[in-house]
Amino acid sequence: MTAASATIPVGASVCLENFGWHYPGRQNPSLAGVDAQIGAGERVLLLGPSGAGKSTLLQALAGVEQDPDGQSRSGELTVDGADPRDARGAVGFMHQDPETQVVLSRIGDDVAFGLENLAVPREQIWPRVHEALDRVGLHLPLEHSTTALSGGQKQRLALAGVMAMRPRLLLLDEPTASVDHEGAVELCRAVSRAVRQDGTTLVVVEHRVALWEPVVHRVIVLDDNGSVAFDGPTRETLHDARKLLQAQGTWVPDWVPTTRPPAHRRAVEVDAAAEGPDGGDECPRGAGTARSGRDRPPHAAGSPAPRDGAVLLSARELGVSRIQPSRRVVARERRRARRSWRRGETLEAPARRVVDFPPAAEHITLDVRAGRALAVTGPNGAGKSTLALTLAGLLVPVRGTVRASAVLADDAPPDPGLWDGSELISRVGTVFQHPEHQFLRSTVREELEFGPEQLRRHSERSKPRRDVTADDARVADLLRRLRLEDLAGANPFTLSGGQKRRLSVATVLAAAPAVVILDEPTFGQDARTWKELVDLLAEEMDRGTAVVAVTHDRDLMTALDAEEVGLGS
């Protein structure tokens, strides 16, 4: 039965027999000896630790895996008895990165693209487009530009494009990762309604179990080696596998890993405990000792560490826009502004008055403080990522100002938008929403070494010179802490989504900037790697690093004791 059929489609069946996958250059296989039968219309939640091969399995089921020499794949995998590569019209696949699925410039055309390729009759296409967009809650005009969408909105668009095709097998890889909580609940309900109405077989990968527990019939749990550890009905399997799932880092309901609180939070807790109910000064057993800013070692940027809580970056009445002047205009205005700064004239943001661009968010006033965390929250499309890139000096404000303190700016202009690459790297490090956008080298280790190498190159004449041994030790520690040691020689683009995210965070931390700006830093992380990321960020804060996180992760905000800046819809 084709997707163009007017009758309700029947879900596809899946058969895996001793199926495995081994990427070239990897020491261990991603999947090993997977055996499973998924019946037509079943709804399955696929769980396992980050890097266990979940995304690889979905790609194989979708028939889009890359195996040019025929050496990676082993065993058997079929969809309705056929090789998935010959059944793509029957399979709908939503990738971890929705950017890879946006192909046309307007959202209506983008959703219609798959239907046109399946030769769906014209009179059926636009009703399906409207229905799919409504199901995922993307209420925008059909002519709305896809380039103007936020990451979460692109995730909804990708899901709409897949659902519009009414596949017999629907594969979803972290479908709610970049969506706020309310939107995630809405998307789960939309998927649940769609697969029930259409009889679709569903396989979904998601770290947060509570979202999908009411939707699925069955749970398959992969172990660290990419083999099936548990397989059975949802409630029973989650109960039987709970200890393994927690050990793996799966986000089972009503559980959050214990993390290391930042020093300023520990100091408050220690002081409160020391006073005791009667005002005594006894320190509780096992309580940590928080170091003050005076005790903290100098920051890696080379200048003394700022006082704990001191303002490093400030925004006043800031308006930010995704639409920017041309690169030529920005470069010209930056040169002009830097010349004015050298002459001691009043500093204006580059290209501020070239065009009055429509703001994604405005009237933003905030302070980024040493040793503290700031969380930027709000619904998809509120301008969170645009604000982050503007604070980092990578986008031009449409109004208002961003200013660095004298301690942070040092011998550079106070406007981060005027800094060049060598000035930015030790001052502000940015983790983009999509990790692939910042990968430059062919191996994981080389990616981590890139930042320190650039700092050494730009500080060859400075005294004292950067310690190569210390840089190498930091890279090795990041590889270990973020569970990337075994992947040090792998190509960054072959990593799983969660591994790419950890690598993108690590590449910024390797250069030890004074301010770290992270866009959805916990995206795609199991609870183990989430804990390591949180502990690592807390340690950075203890060194005096300021952390700015664009996030929907309330657990992250609590763990870092983050101040919240909420942007409206």
TrEMBL record:
UniProt GO molecular function: ATP binding
Domain spans labelled ABC transporter: 14-249, 342-569
Keywords: ATP-binding, Nucleotide-binding, Transport
Region named Disordered: 64-89, 271-307
PROSITE patterns attached to this UniProt entry: ABC_TRANSPORTER_1 (PS00211), ABC_TRANSPORTER_2 (PS50893)
Gene3D superfamilies in UniProt: P-loop containing nucleotide triphosphate hydrolases
Family annotation (Pfam families): ABC_tran (PF00005)
Transport as UniProt keyword: yes
Family: Belongs to the ABC transporter superfamily.
PANTHER family, per the entry: HEAVY METAL TRANSPORTER
Protein name: ATP-binding cassette domain-containing protein
Upper lineage: Bacteria, Bacillati, Actinomycetota, Actinomycetes, Micrococcales
